[in-house]
Amino acid sequence: MKTKTRRKRTAKSTVPKRRPSPRRSGQPIASSEGIAHITLAAGNVFADLGFSESEAANLKVRAQLMRELRRVIADLTQVDAAELLGVAQPRVSDLKRGKIGLFTIDSLVNMLARAGVTVRVSLSRSKHTAA
Predict the structure, then answer these.
(1) Residue 16 in contact with residue 55, Cβ under 8 Å?
(2) pLDDT tens readout for residues 64-121
(3) SS3 letters for 82-109?
């Protein structure tokens, strides 16, 4: 008699799918397993992973805000952190587990404000952008 196995359902992530990144000019190096390439970073790991410029900028900001929130609640239980941030405990769990796709910049800024953290935004134009 055959038994059916159930596949565990997983929630789809809301993080945008990345497209393959064009290879930057890396220098080949010798390794014990053959030739490897070093790719120079562009200052945003999400851009390096192939996300569009706007998606990479958004993900970078969310990652910075999440990192600060995790620092703020590091010594608290999830229940205490949830009370401080004004969210349910499962949201704190998602935050601690780094589920970036479940949070907007808005929600992260609101949680930081509830925790007494002032968020400042600094803007600058890249050199190749028209004025």
Answers:
(1) yes
(2) 999 999 999 999 999 999 999 999 999 999 999 999 999 999 999 999 999 999 999 8
(3) HHHHCCCHHHHHHHHCCCHHHCCHHHHH
pTM: 0.63
- Residue 36 phi/psi, 5-degree rounding, is -120, 160
**Which pair of structure tokens corresponds to residue 75?**
């010594």
Residue length of the chain: 131
pLDDT of residue 12: 55
Sequence-distant (6+) residues with CB within 8 A of 32 are none
With b meaning 16 or more CB within 10 Å and e meaning fewer, what string describes 88-116? eeebbebbeeebbebbeeebbbebbeebe
Of 96, 65, 102, the closest CA to residue 82 belongs to: 96
The residues, any chain, with a CB within 8 Å of residue 13's CB and separated by 6 or more, are 99, 101
Note the pLDDT of residue 97.
95
Complete domains list, the chain, with CATH: 28-114 (1.10.260.40)
